[in-house]
Design brief:
binds adenosine-5'-triphosphate; ABC_transporter-like_CS; alpha/beta; transport; about 25% strand; Rossmann fold; binds magnesium ion; eight-stranded mixed sheet; AAA+_ATPase; four-stranded antiparallel sheet
């Protein structure tokens, strides 16, 4: 059973202003390769507040992980380049911060569970050692205190018999338990912002639901800002407060989760919704969005979604729609969002 424990005391030089933790503004990321320039992120804007969960949703290649890597400051530059934009944490721009200061934000302030989490545990060290190392390295704790913290965290993420298993190796745990260990490591330094990049992809459906509710519990208990990255609208319905839908490196729709489920304002979001099975609509036909996302070296002019959009008109092939307000707390980037909303 989970033991409710207070996070380890952590004093920070960063204080959120009015609860605002993270502000991403006009973020652009390019990859300069021998084949050309891939425009992976093309003007992304969003913010995350304390105690809020923002889900970032989109198909493979839409720029979800690159956005997270830009926030964490872990993009390899080159080939990556950030020609424009800012990533403010408690009002401080991480993109212009000296690297030594920025490094200190990774872990204690903003932490990330990586997309390939199951393979990012080191197979040659016991899991408890790997968690304890966070406390030794960042908090200067001695070995026995750090191990005690590791056990406490393993208990918190509901690893059965944590005390006995603290010295076990990653291969001795199931996929779901290894993901719990990755979560324990990610929250070990009591971060204000947690980014979880596809935290449940490799897991079966029951374990997915358990991991999601663990993340939700931890977020509420610690009042963290949570960014939940996924390509599956179905898994975030109960956890997210808001959803940002990405397509070809831009946010094409942003809204409260309930509003998006009730009525999408963008044809792409509608396509994503139509492609998930719903318990309330038994026997329905599921439809997938036809076509493929664009080559990021040759993004089509106008609306990037136009070659796949059944509503596309001439204006869509000519003018790029801006992300504009289309209702309370909601924005969409579509010339015909009113028609989509009223359909
Ligand atoms: N190091 C790199 N060099 C060149 N292109 C890259 C590099 N890293 C990412 N990209 C490109 O950036 C685009 C966005 O990638 P990203 O990993 O953010 O997608 P994603 O939305 O996370 O997809 P997935 O759901 O598959 O994880 C992709 O087209 C990808 O090929
Ligand atoms: S702007 Fe046009 S092509 Fe783009 S999503 Fe809207 S209707 Fe479709
Ligand atoms: Mg990804």
């Amino acid at each position: 059973m989970a033991t409710a424990t207070a996070p380890t005391a952590h004093t920070s030089e960063y204080q959120p202003q009015d609860g605002l933790l993270l502000e991403v503004e006009d973020l652009h990321v390019e990859f300069h390769t021998r084949y050309g320039v891939a425009k992976a992120i093309n003007g992304v804007n969003f913010s995350v507040r304390q105690g809020e969960c923002l889900a970032i949703l989109g198909e493979s290649g839409s720029g979800k992980s690159v956005t997270a890597q830009a926030i964490m400051g872990i993009l390899d530059m080159p080939p990556a380049k950030i020609p424009q934009g800012s990533v403010k944490y408690c009002g401080h721009d991480l993109l212009t911060m000296p690297e030594d200061r920025r490094r200190k934000t990774r872990g204690p302030e903003i932490s990330m569970i990586f997309q390939d989490a199951l393979s990012s545990l080191n197979p040659t060290f016991p899991v408890g050692w790997q968690i304890a190392e966070m406390f030794r390295e960042h908090r200067g704790m001695n070995k026995s205190d750090a191990y005690a913290q590791a056990v406490r965290l393993m208990e918190r993420v509901s690893i059965p018999a944590a005390k006995q298993r603290v010295k076990a190796y990653p291969h001795q745990f199931s996929g779901g338990m290894r993901q719990r260990i990755m979560i324990a490591m990610a929250i070990s330094l009591d971060p204000a912002v947690l980014i979880a990049d596809e935290p449940t992809t490799a897991l079966d459906v029951t374990v997915q639901a358990q991991i999601m509710s663990l993340l939700q519990e931890l977020q509420q208990e610690r009042h963290m800002g949570l960014i939940l990255i996924t390509h599956d609208l179905g898994v975030v319905a109960d956890v997210a407060d808001r959803i940002a839908v990405m397509y070809a490196g831009r946010i094409v729709e942003q809204a409260d989760v309930r509003d998006i489920y009730a009525k999408p304002a963008h044809p792409y979001t509608k396509g994503l919704l139509d492609s998930i099975p719903r318990l309330d609509l038994k026997g329905q036909e599921l439809s997938a969005i036809g076509g493929l996302p664009p080559n990021l070296m040759h993004i089509p002019p106008g609306c990037a979604f136009n070659p796949r959009c059944t509503m596309a008109q001439d204006i869509c092939r000519r003018d790029r729609p801006e992300l504009v307000e289309v209702g309370p707390h909601r924005k969409a980037a579509c010339h015909f969002s009113e028609e989509v909303l009223n359909a």
